[in-house]
Design brief:
CATH superfamily: Immunoglobulins
Shape: elongated
Strand order of the largest sheet: 5-4-7-8
CATH topology: Immunoglobulin-like
Number of helices: 0
Oligomer: single chain
Radius of gyration: 21 Å
Low-confidence stretches: none
Order of helices and strands: EEEEEEEEE
Strand content: over 45%
CATH class: Mainly Beta
């Protein structure tokens, strides 16, 4: 109770429970013949923020080593929509989309220009 002058006011607090979900998108990038590609730029963009620790993230970028990539964060949403764009010089870029969780797993083949 909060006392203001001679008026008693009830003080209430409503705690909102937040549930965390594991948001992860994994995959590999290869040439048309199946050989892994190194140095591929993979860009993740999400519709609603995901979190690295307590830091909100709307986009992440990485460059692959041996063609593999993984983005792993936390989300307050049971279904977070995302897009990934994959680029490498000399190859046609690709953009894919999905929803995670569950884990988004992508096997990507890039076509030479």
């Amino acid at each position: 109770m909060l006392v203001l002058g001679s008026v008693l006011l009830p003080v209430t607090s409503t705690a909102r429970r937040v549930r965390d979900y594991v948001f992860d998108v994994v995959g590999s990038v290869a040439a048309e013949d199946g050989s892994p590609l190194e140095g591929v730029e993979v860009i993740l963009q999400v519709e609603t923020p995901v979190y690295e620790g307590v830091t909100p993230v709307k986009a992440q970028r990485l460059v692959t080593n041996k063609g593999a990539f993984i983005f792993m964060c936390l989300s307050h949403s049971a279904a977070t929509k995302y897009t990934i764009t994959v680029r490498k010089e000399g190859f046609q870029p690709q953009t894919l989309s999905g929803t995670a969780p569950p884990t988004g797993h992508h096997e990507i083949r890039l076509r030479k220009l």
